[in-house]
Amino acid sequence: MVCNVFLLHAQTKLDSLDSLIKLNETLVIDTVIRLDSLQNLIEDLQESYAREQFLVLEREAVIRINRAAFAGMWINKPLFGETYRHSARRGSYILPLLYSGLHPYIF
Question: Does the pTM of the predicted model rise above 0.85?
Answer without folding.
Answer: no
